[in-house]
Amino acid sequence: MNPLLPLTVGLLATLLSACQSLPSVVAARAPVAEVPANMIPLVEKRESLTATGYAVISVQNHRTPAQQRLLAIRAAKLDAYRSLTEQVYGLRMDATATVADMVVQNDTFRSRVEGVIYGATLVSITPSGDDTYETTLSLDKATVQDLRMLYLGQLTAKAK
Length: 160
What we know:
39% of the residues lie in helices and 28% in strands. By secondary structure, it is α+β, with helices and mostly antiparallel strands. The strands form two sheets. Strands 1-5-4 form a three-stranded antiparallel β-sheet.
């Protein structure tokens, strides 16, 4: 028999005997009044999609550094819009692979995204490192649902 077992049982019995119910305290407490449904404060959770785009400053096609920075910001913003469009509408992938003698000769992937984005909010434009800009956009989920409904409406109209 384990020599610690009687000690553990004794300690547990002591702890449990110290607990007792307090019905007089519970009964003396004032009843909680029910709050009408129209009085409950609404906590609105704003869910949104976010997308980040990147662009390198030094590869922008201009001579002056200031103009290169502005073009990089613009390119990063467009990259973020592309990323939002992928999240809302999805991405069309085309892939081909050529195999000869059980060896891959050629493997090609092409992707395309197409859609309309409106109502996006510019969250931030920040330099990332010495030669890159990072732009973050946000799109409210209600707007995402509107965009998807419009898209589905267009698809059904084309099918008729």
